[in-house]
Amino acid sequence: MTNRRQQQGFTLIELMLVMAILGLIASSVMLTLPGSNRQQNSAQDSAITLQQQLQYAREYAMVRQQPLALAFNDNGYEFLVWQEESWQSFNTRGLKPQQTEWPLSWQLLNQDMAELAQNEELNDGVFGSGDDSEQDDESEIKRPDVLILPSGEMTAFTLKIENANDIAAERWVKTENSWQLIVLNEAPEQ
């Protein structure tokens, strides 16, 4: 006869192993959450969010072969889509409008649509002012600040994100070329 002992429950080693794994998961989650000093990191967070949204918008424009744009306003920015011969607000997953709260402010330092605007086909549509008389008096004409073409190319721009409480927390989002976006801690050379 064999003496078989039936196991009922978990051993101490198994419980310790599970607790160690849960501890590692909890610490990794805590490291990825924003810090408690939200005001200091908010310019950096906003710059990275914009950078990631622009990367996604480029991919979206390439996959769907549809021009997109980014328009800045006093309270943040929104994405636009070229539909029905005009720029329309675009609110899809991943490209939702972003609102700026005090102490943050946005300042578009420069933009360069000149290279892309040389294309005569685009001048009549995407870059053209259109016939404003056909617009309703109540409707607001949307004008893009940054254009994202279906080829994935993007117009050049430099954006400064200021934090009124901490000047050292300023960030700049800049296009290196029509493909690369960078976030800088210091003002870029002009």
From TrEMBL:
The chain crosses the membrane at residues 12-33. SUPFAM superfamilies: Pili subunits. Signal peptide: none annotated. It is found in: Cell inner membrane. Residues 49-165 form the General secretion pathway GspH domain. Belongs to the GSP H family. GO terms for biological process: protein secretion by the type II secretion system. GO terms for cellular component: plasma membrane; type II protein secretion system complex. Keywords: Cell inner membrane, Cell membrane, Membrane, Methylation, Transmembrane, Transmembrane helix. InterPro entries: N_methyl_site, Pilin-like, T2SS_GspH, T2SS_protein-GspH, TypeII_GspH. The keyword Transmembrane helix applies. The keyword Transmembrane helix applies. Its main location: membrane. It is a single-pass membrane protein. This is Type II secretion system protein H.
